[in-house]
Every structure is written in structure tokens, then in C-alpha cells.
Amino acid sequence: MSVLSGQRAWLLQRITAIYAGVYVLLAVALLLGRPPADHAAWLALITHPVIWTATAAFAVLLLLHAWIGLRDVILDYVRPFGARLGALAIVAILFLLLGLWALWILIEAALR
Q1: Close Cβ partners of 65 (under 8 Å, ≥ 6 residues apart)
Q2: Could you report the per-residue pLDDT of 36-87, keeping only the tens digit for each?
């Protein structure tokens, strides 16, 4: 791994952490300030274009943040090339599936 890609990964992880922190703080403030009373209110909240977009971005950026961290741990501690490649492939597939699942849930909510 070159120094530049390490710096890029470091910066990207910090940016995703800032977004996640701000998102969680705003979500908690919103839910404490105006808690949805029933299922219809939850659907109305999550399908609002700003909330939907922010939540979709949160899901994607959270997975990106976790990928960077796990990738670095795997590259640092898994020495055999085959095991390293296998671990990276498994994590990548799992994160891809988790991301698709999260987006599917958001899309299903928006279509109701």
C-alpha cells in the first residue's frame, strides 16, 4: 500500500465518521423532538426525500467506513496471500449484500 492510498483511506474514514456522527445526532434530535406516533408516521418520516437520501447515504458511508477499517486490519494481520485474499473477498461480498439489503429496505418503504 502506498503512502498516498493510506492517506486517502485515512481521510475517507474520517469524513465518513463525521457524516455518521452528524447523522446520528440529528436523527436522535429529530426523534426526541417529534417521535413518530405510529407506523404511518414512521413511513412518512423515512420517505421524506431529505430523510431518505440522508439515510441511504448513511448506510453506504457506514459500510465504506467499516470496509476501510476491516481492510486495514486484514492487510496488517493476515499474512498468507490466499487467506488475505479470501478474507477480503468474504468481507467485500458481505458488505455488498448488507448495502443492497439496506437500500432495498429504503426503496420498499418509499414505494408503500
Answers
A1: 13, 16, 17, 20
A2: 999 999 999 999 999 999 999 999 999 999 999 999 999 999 999 999 999 9
C-beta of residue 20 within 8 angstroms of C-beta of residue 58: yes
Question: Across the chain, where does the E strand assignment appear?
Answer: none
- CB-based contacts of 67: which residues, under 8 Å, 6+ apart? 91, 92, 95
Q: Is residue 4 predicted with pLDDT exceeding 70?
A: no
pTM: 0.90
Contact 50, 12 (CB under 8 A): no
Distance from C-alpha of 22 to C-alpha of 16, rounded to nearest angstrom: 10
**Collapsed DSSP state (helix, strand, coil) of residue 94:** helix
Residue 48 DSSP one-character state:
S
Name which of 20, 101, 30 is nearest 54 in CA terms: 20
